[in-house]
Amino acid sequence: MTDTSFIHKNSKIHSSCKVGPFCYIGEDVEIAEDCELLSHVVIKGPCKIGPNNKFFQFCTIGEDTPDKKFKGEKTQLHIGSNNIFREGFTVHRGTIQDNSLTTIKDNNLFMAYSHVAHDCIVGSNNVFANNCGIAGHVKVGNNVTLGAVSLVHQFCNIGDYAFTGLNSVITMDVPAFVKVASNPAKPVGLNSIGMQRGGISDDEIKLLKKAYRILYRDGNLLIEAISKINELDNNKSILKIFIDSIENSSRGILR
């Protein structure tokens, strides 16, 4: 701890945490063991932060949302463990119009000036590259990569192992394993490299390529494509993840 940082008396900071100079930790903030705030980090509550998170300079964590419906309610931010928040990252708490909660899970890397808006749910093992941002109520799965300057419209879902290219603008849901790019974004294949790095087998990737072809290349209607994908091998959990990300779409998928 340093004399230049402010820590509210009603916050709970584990004794193993490192708080650098010029940091602000507000009321109702709980920070678990082995977290590190380098300098000039602002954390406001109510906010619960798990162990072993690292916050670089000028991060703003748990600030009020700029949503005009927000009237100062005691909404929440929950952050898991082993996340890295690089320079200038921002995340807002939830709103009572949703579940009053923004959630970031484990092992994520948020690069400089990336943003997570109110009421978002971000899974684990994701990479948010520089200057990418997700609007309110967005759900991001696991093992997702958002390329630099990617923007995601509110209420969109980004499925597991999805990938967005540089400067993508996403206005509809992205199914699991699918790679999109451009403005407006459109599907350009499967995230094969990401799947390989994630330990998905070559046979499973081949199966997903067949499913991708049925959905995007063969001219099928969506309901026809889902039926044909189910016929490939309905015992494969990898296909179930793909199909569920399509069937559970509320905004419709990029196609």
State the share of residues found in helices, binned by percent: 10-25%
CATH architecture of the largest domain: 3 Solenoid
**Largest beta-sheet details:** 10 strands, mixed
Rg, Å, rounded: 20 Å
In whole angstroms, how far apart are the ends? 51 Å
Q: How many discrete domains? A: 2
Q: Which runs of at least 5 residues are low in confidence (pLDDT < 50)? A: none
CATH class of the largest domain: Mainly Beta
Overall shape: it is: elongated
Question: Which strands sit side by side, in order, in the main sheet?
Answer: 3-6-9-12-15-18-21-24-26-27
- Given the structure, what is the number of helices? 4
Characterise the protein shown here.
- Helices cover 17% and strands 27% of the residues.
- The protein has a 10-stranded mixed beta sheet.
- It starts with 5 loop residues before the first strand and ends in an 8-residue tail after the last helix.
- The longest helix is centred in the last third of the chain and has 15 residues, at 202-216.
- Strand 26 (178-181) and strand 27 (186-190) form a beta hairpin.
- It is built from 4 helices and 27 strands.
- It is of the alpha/beta class and 255 residues long.
- Helix 2 runs antiparallel to helix 3 (222-232).
- The chain has 2 domains: 6-191, Hexapeptide repeat proteins (UDP N-Acetylglucosamine Acyltransferase, domain 1); 196-247, no CATH class.
- The mean pLDDT is 95.
- The radius of gyration is 20 Å and the shape is elongated.
